[in-house]
Sequence to fold (279 residues):
Amino acid sequence: MIRLFAILAALVCTVSLATGVQAQTSKLRELDSELDAMAWQAVGRLDVAGSGFCSATLIEDDLIVTAAHCVYDMATGKPHAPERMTFRAGLRDGKAAAHVRVSKVAAHPGFDPTSGSSQANVSHDAALLRLERPVQVYQLNPFALHKDRVVEGPVSIVSYGRGRAEAQSRQRECQMTERQGAMLVFDCDVTFGSSGSPVFSHMNGRAKVMAVVSAMSVWNGRKVALGVDVQAVVPELKQMLRASQLAVAPAPRAKVRRLRVGDSTGGGRSSIGAKFVRP
Fold:
């Protein structure tokens, strides 16, 4: 049974879908051939023993990026021990291009695992994980990060998810429709387990990681995905790892707040009605 961490959200009027994008969104499909899957092997499944899985992406030979909420027990707000997490690069039908345990975790200090309903929280929902050994380049090539201006328009996504946990699926084209600070809004098809999935830009024909998926949302009856702009968060996370600081921010003592859609978070934060749940 999959016990996924996920955010179910309903966007309020402060986050609206842009109307200027001419959507050419394609369908999500499983990468069912070895040839199709080979180019995306740096995207893998991050398994947490006893707690389900997320998606993650190799961005250096020993470094993966995923969503911050994937490294916490969302029922208690406490971080998972790194040794409980394993990255399976390019996992497909039980076989992985690389199978490596995690040795260290840096979750963004602006992310609060007990408060899932603020735009600020989604905007910091990213983590870097150091692997216990490098993945050799001859096995697969890490993806570079997008470092250009983020604009509305076509992107793609590769992910795992409930009902398609044993192989990657790719949406060749979906749309980035809105930006709210470091939070980006997409019409990409995501589900439980897609947390941490990379959203790719394709400038000059090369796929680069633009964002990491944080949440599912529903706006005016349409499902959308929320992601965090990697340019806004990854540099700080790299500094945390280099400086050997506390890997994961201390878990707040407050218990998990079960918020209904539309509830206010209080504390002056801008609410988007999100909540963390276990399906």
Q: What stands out?
A: The chain is about 10% helix and 35% strand. The helical segments are 34-38, 119-122, 230-242. The chain has one domain: 6-249. The CA atoms of residues 191 and 204 lie 29 Å apart.
